[in-house]
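We modelled each protein-ligand pair independently. The example shown here corresponds to the flavin-adenine dinucleotide entry; the chain sequence is given first, followed by the ligand as SMILES.
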Amino acid sequence: MQRTETVIIGGGVVGASVAYHLTERGAKDVLILEREAVQGRGSTGAATGGVRSQFETEINIKLSLYSLDFFNNWEYDCEYDPAGYLFFAATDAQLEYLKQSSARQRELGVRDVEIIDADDIKRIVPFLNCDDIAGGSFGKHDGFINPLAVMNGFTDAALRNGAEIQFETQAVAINTKKEKIVSVETNKGVIECENVVLCTGAWAKQLAATVDIDLPVSPQRRQIVWARAAEPLPTGLPMVIDIGTGFHFRPAKDWNSGIPARTNARHSSFSNNENYEIIFAFPDPDEPSSTNTAFDDSFIDKVYQRAKLRAPYLYETELVREKCRAGLYENSPDHHAILGGCDVKGLYFANGFSGHGVMHSPATGRALSEIILDGKASFLDVSCLSIERFSTGKLLHETAFI
Ligand SMILES: Cc1cc2nc3c(=O)[nH]c(=O)nc-3n(C[C@H](O)[C@H](O)[C@H](O)COP(=O)(O)OP(=O)(O)OC[C@H]3O[C@@H](n4cnc5c(N)ncnc54)[C@H](O)[C@@H]3O)c2cc1C
């Protein structure tokens, strides 16, 4: 029978980061199980790679600060591009919210986040209809990374450090004895182990249920429309978000056009077409919880109608249908990650990122490695993210999720 100390189930960006951080600390017997033939076919391959410190809660701001710093200083090139994030407000109440959030961000150490007025916004996004805009907040160090590059960087380093990855291996159950992890059952046999880290993204709930844990993570489809403008995009266009509706757009980066093909997701291609191509989307309130990842053409018109109101320039872009994509968010009830251990000794969660798993992957990997090896995370207190909060009612509150 196969045996290892730690099994990480799921080889997306989060599983890869946990493996990297564990092996950097000297952990040797680390095995990643991935049900697909390659990495990147889960949410990581659909993500657009936004990174930002502009959050509402202290814990999200701190996870971002740590992670942005990591991306910026990583010897591996994850294509961090600090193009900025611009949130705009169409009401005074929304602007007040942005003011309060940016004050908290600055207090916690976020540099160069500022409140700007409609004229500033018009300068940054010349094609935006700013008639009703009260102001906004701009974070200069927010921006973009390449999700697949981050995943590959973590994986390659983890493998160099001695970790292993097993493809086409689907975990079907986690086995315990006296409330303690003993093994993982897979389609290829049983693997004895002491620790299991659940990194199965939007599919985490089913495996947790095999040890009678109700992990509150629900999958939800998110769709992205990809289009090409007749004229080049304004230079330095950041991510632009309507804080009221969640409608957002940003220059497209062609590093993983759509969910990775059945060939090999480990090769990303960054073409030079980002000056003309743009992606836009909004969180559709009518989208039910499901694992459906098929792109639905009816979403296109919904997005273009929103674009028409806010930016005729976007409305006039030409759809690039083959690059439109859909993937899954892994929502938790309070839109915060679920990190750390539980009542079952040796079982750890790294789930529920609610659309922020790529940007928070460095902090997540470090937190999990410290929790597993030392009993708690000391670089940052992440105890408020433990699964316990759902039974004690100590939920967090984040409005700035899109
Ligand atoms: C359209 C879209 C845009 C997004 N944009 C951003 C963004 O701008 N910034 C950001 O930070 N995040 C973004 N996200 C969210 C981000 O993609 C996720 O939070 C992140 O990828 C989660 O990583 P993960 O490794 O936990 O999950 P995944 O990447 O889904 O990896 C989980 C892996 O587990 C494997 N697996 C599942 N079940 C099993 C099993 N039983 N046995 C073995 N393997 C299994 C899957 O095959 C998969 O490879 C976006 C998501 C979508 C859909």
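The chain has a mean pLDDT of 94.
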